Amino acid sequence: MKKILFLGGSSPIGQSCMETFLKKNFKVTYIGRKKVKINNKNLHFKKFDFQEKSKLNLKYKNLISKSDFSHICFIQRSRSEKNQIDSEINISIKPTINIIEQFIKHNRYKKNKTKKSILIFTSPASRKIALEQPISYHLGKAMVDQIVRFYSLQLAKINCNINAISPAFVLKKRAEKFYKDNKKLTNLINNIIPNGKMINTEEFAKIVFNLMSENFYYINGQIIDVDGGLNVHENASLSRLSMKVLDEF
What we know:
alpha/beta, 9 strands
C-alpha cells in the first residue's frame, strides 16, 4: 500500500484530497492542528505545532525515515494575525524545506525505484495581488513557487517530481448557501470562467490525485493553475466581460 503525507488539510479542499487518496487505497498520514471528520482505518492523525521551536528537524527526520512515504502534499498555511511574516515562514516555508531535505536524504541511496511525487498548494497571489490577503501571504506563496523550481532538480535524481497547484474559485459545501443567496455574484463568476462554472472540492481533489500519479511524473517544477481558463483573460477584456455579465443579470 502506498503512503502519502499531508501537512495541513483540515480545509474542505484538504479533506476532499485525503478522502480521494484513501479511496485509491493509499495509507494517509495527516499532521496538523486539528482532526478531520474522516472515519477510515488508513487515516492516521498526528497533532503537530509548526510553530514549535525545539527539535523540529529531528521530528521531521523521524517522520520521514519511519514511514517511508512515496508522496507528500503540503497544504498548511499560517492564519496568525500577529507577527504575520514570521508566522508564514515558520508554518508554510520552513517545514516544507526541512521535510523535502529529509525526504531527499532518506531516498538518496535507496535502490527502490518507485515513482515519488510532491505537491505544494500555492495561489495566484504569488504573482498577482489579492487585496483580501496580507503581504505575508503574498511573500509566502512567492517563496513556495521558488521552492518548487529549486528542488525540482534535486528531487528528479531520486525519481521524484515536485509541482505546485494554484486553485482559483473552488466551490466548498460550506459556501453553497452564500453563493445561492448571492446569485448575481455566482452568475458573474460562472460566466467569466471559460469552462462555465466553479470547480467543487471533489473535482479539484481528483486533479490533485491525477497530478501526483505515475502518469504525470514527467511534469516537474511547474506552477499549475486550476482555474477553468480564467487567467487567459486579458485585464481589459475581463473588465468588459464582467460589466456585460452584470448588465445581463
